Amino acid sequence: MPLVQVSLLKGKPQKNISAIGDSVHQALVEEFKIPELDKFQVVREVEKNHLVYPPSYMDIPHTENIVYIQITAREGRTVDIKKRLYQKIATLIHERTGISTDDVFIVLTEVKAENWSFGRGLAQLADKT
């Protein structure tokens, strides 16, 4: 049930865009143990002047290949699981696209189960906590 939002520079090959989404999803399935069919993603391609990043931050260099990944997920996973998720996402994206792991920027936002509606105006997970 995570919602994944990916932002990257406009004009990247479609195969890379698909590989990024597939990499994030595979990592979520393997590390967060989400169902295989639980794939909700939005990809935003932005113009160069709308992609803002420092050339280096925390001794990590960044290039115009930077990919911002925002994941909204239900709360409750350990720090170790989150660390494994981040590592797996960065590694898979690098392996499938050649994008440096330095350019994979991930933010995870956790929310309570009752804050989700998958349709019909219902809070399907509200009573399962």
Model description:
The chain is α/β, with parallel strands linked by helices and 129 residues long. The protein has a single domain (3-128), classed as Macrophage Migration Inhibitory Factor (2-Layer Sandwich), CATH 3.30.429. Helix content is 29%, strand content 26%. The chain has helices at 14-32, 79-97; strands spanning 3-9, 40-46, 56-57, 60-61, 67-74, 104-111. The strands form two sheets. It has a four-stranded mixed beta sheet with strand order 2-1-5-6, with helices on one face. Strands 3-4 form a two-stranded antiparallel sheet. α1 runs antiparallel to α2 (79-97). The chain starts with a strand and ends in an 18-residue tail after the last strand. The model has no long low-confidence stretch (mean pLDDT 96).
Which keywords apply here?
single chain, 129 residues, alpha/beta, Macrophage Migration Inhibitory Factor, 4-stranded mixed sheet, two-stranded antiparallel ribbon, 2 helices, 6 strands, globular
Largest sheet: 4 strands, mixed
**How many β-strands, per DSSP?**
6
Structural class: alpha/beta
Q: Domain count, please report it.
A: 1
Secondary-structure element string = EHEEEEHE
Task: Output the CATH class name.
Answer: Alpha Beta
Spatial sequence of strands, sheet with the most strands: 2-1-5-6
Distance between the amino and carboxyl termini: 14 Å
Oligomer: single chain
Return the CATH architecture: 2-Layer Sandwich
How big is the Rg? 15 Å
The share of residues in extended strands comes to 25-35%
Shape: globular
Q: Would you identify the CATH H-level superfamily?
A: Macrophage Migration Inhibitory Factor
Number of helices: 2
Q: Low-confidence parts lasting 5 or more residues at pLDDT below 50?
A: none
Residue share in helices?
Answer: 25-40%
Mean pLDDT: 96
CATH topology: Macrophage Migration Inhibitory Factor
